[in-house]
Write a structure and sequence with these properties.
mainly alpha; 2 domains
Length: 548
């Protein structure tokens, strides 16, 4: 068996029992590799978003593709969020206790059943695309919502994208198998190639196929994603067996773990589909206006929190399997501290810089001043939910490592009901003909979810407690408040002299405020002796000394 090389050595044999320091280095190395790959994927993804903004803006074509791609991608994320948290601990547990053969039987049986299920879904989805569009976006069927032309376009796009479900669904399991061996770089590369395929299709085919170009690119990217995983697995694929794994207690336990996950995912995705349903009768481009800002807030989440969550999961699962709950709690608490240190200032900064951020990224072609006005308040509300989004990732991974999927499912169900209720209320009673109220509902519900989930996790583990972290939290809040004040003052001074009317103006405001604000936060954090920044400074000094 070969392992990817590198100084950080993100791949560690499952049989090793590394020290706490070595484990920390391994997690940091793995998180760095994943973060770099996700950064590459997000850069390419941003290129896609920029092109979508330029070619489609907040027009009916943008709305059509957003709805058409939502249902198929929901199925893919279902495979990822339902199967992976239950499959990975089961695969690791079986491999450690009963050997390679049993583990690969579990993997082979899982892939075979998944392939059959996905094939049926693809056929059914393409056959009933029109009915799906009617349910997700009934507002499209009205004259104000776009009418028959918009509906027909959405249906055709959905039938193309649905084919990609087969490849994406299988890639979620192959990704998980590779992660079980702590191989992170190559599977993460698949995400990059998925985005590359989408962008290439849009660039190459747009002149001839218009909006259908991005759907074909999406399909091509999905094939590239799975192909990358297959190449990474290599000879391991020969170990796959379809045996009597379905009778094994581990397989049955995996299915039991999946049930609450499936329930939780179903209501979570119904929430997002209902957001589209609520937005579809609003002004033209309202559905697309939920997408563009969300992609902005997803960037730091994917690069930092999501990458950290993927890197943590195998280690958390090993600690849980070996009964090392004290090590698990220390790892959880240190991860939450890091996310607080990073995402509290990012949340405030993006809230202040919502408009210039959107101008810098999107304003060109069809993404007009109207598009900026429509998306800015949406980004402000989404920005306020970034901290909760980041913390949720690590908290949920900890639950899953403990093979506890029921508790987060119940918490998620309650907060989803809160989200849907708020979304319905704001769209029925709000004075704005835009989707800002839907973004507000999202932020409120997710924040409540994180507070409840952490409180319950602390009870299950009999810790960790944040009582001893008060000084740290106050220092982060203080440094962030000072940073926000500085950024706000600079923002006001610049726009008083040069009002923002385009991408260049937005870039000036964004660059000036980000630079000064970032220096202010890091400087204050260092003066307050926050360990997170002090350790980073010491590491840099050490590297500089060794370089002399």
């Amino acid at each position: 068996m070969t392992h990817e090389s590198g100084s950080a050595r993100p791949e560690v044999a499952l049989s090793e029992k590394p020290s706490e320091e070595r484990t920390g280095r391994a997690i940091a190395g793995a998180a760095s590799v994943i973060a770099l790959m996700h950064l590459a994927a997000r850069v390419v993804g941003f290129a896609e978003q920029i092109l979508r903004g330029k070619y489609f803006g907040t027009s009916h074509r943008a709305d059509a593709y957003e709805v058409a791609s939502k249902v198929p991608t929901t199925i893919f994320f279902g495979c990822e969020k339902i199967l992976n948290p239950s499959f990975l601990p089961s695969f690791i547990d079986l491999r450690q206790k009963e050997g390679e053969q049993k583990a690969w039987q579990l993997a082979g049986t899982t892939l075979a059943l998944q392939a059959a299920f996905l094939a049926i879904l693809v056929v059914a989805g393409r056959a009933f695309s029109e009915q799906l569009v009617l349910w997700v976006a009934p507002g499209f069927y009205t004259a104000d919502g776009g009418g028959p032309e918009k509906v027909e376009m959405t249906v055709r796009l959905m039938r193309i994208v649905f084919i990609a479900v087969f490849f994406l669904g299988l890639s979620s399991t192959t990704y998980c198998i590779l992660n079980a061996f702590k191989r992170f770089a190559t599977p993460a590369l698949g995400d990059v190639l998925w985005k590359v395929g989408t962008v290439a299709g849009l660039i190459i085919l747009y002149g001839r196929l218009d909006v259908y170009a991005i759907a074909l690119g999406f399909l091509a990217g999905s094939i590239l994603k799975l192909g990358t995983h297959v190449l990474a697995l290599g000879r391991w694929l020969l170990k796959l067996r379809i045996g009597d794994a379905i009778r094994h207690p581990v397989f049955k336990r995996m299915l039991l773990l999946m049930l609450p996950m499936a329930f939780g995912f179903a209501y979570s995705e119904i929430r997002q589909l209902l957001d589209m349903r609520f937005a579809s009768p609003l002004s033209e481009g309202a559905v697309a206006a939920l997408n563009y800002p969300r992609r902005v807030t997803d960037l730091p989440y994917q690069i930092v929190a999501y990458a950290l969550g993927i890197a943590l999961f195998p280690f958390l699962s090993e600690y849980a399997s070996e009964g090392k709950l004290d090590d698990l709690k220390r790892l959880l608490l240190s991860s939450l501290r890091m996310l607080l240190f990073m995402f509290v200032p990012v949340t405030v900064a993006l809230f202040i810089l919502a408009e210039p951020t959107l101008r810098v990224i999107y304003q060109a072609g069809e993404f007009t001043e109207r598009s900026v006005d429509l998306t800015t308040p949406v980004l402000e509300y989404y920005a306020l939910g970034m901290l909760a989004q980041a913390l949720e990732c690590v908290i949920l991974q900890t639950f899953y490592s403990l093979k506890n999927t029921l508790t987060p499912t119940l918490v998620g169900f309650g907060t989803t009901m809160l989200h849907v209720g708020l979304a319905w209320w704001v769209t029925q009673t709000g004075s704005h003909d835009d989707p800002r109220g839907l973004a507000m509902a999202y932020t409120v519900a997710r924040s409540v979810k994180v507070v409840l989930a952490f409180a319950l996790l602390a009870q299950i583990l009999k810790g960790p407690s944040l009582r001893g972290q008060g000084s740290f939290v106050l220092k982060v809040i203080g440094a962030t408040a000072a940073m926000g004040l500085v950024m706000h003052l600079i923002y006001q001074q610049i726009v008083a002299v040069r009002p923002m009317t385009g991408r260049v103006d937005g870039l000036i405001v964004f660059a000036a405020c980000s630079l000064v604000g970032g220096v202010a936060y890091i400087g204050l954090a260092y003066l307050m002796r926050l360990p997170e920044i002090s350790s980073a400074v010491s590491a840099v000094k050490g590297r500089l000394k060794r370089g002399k």
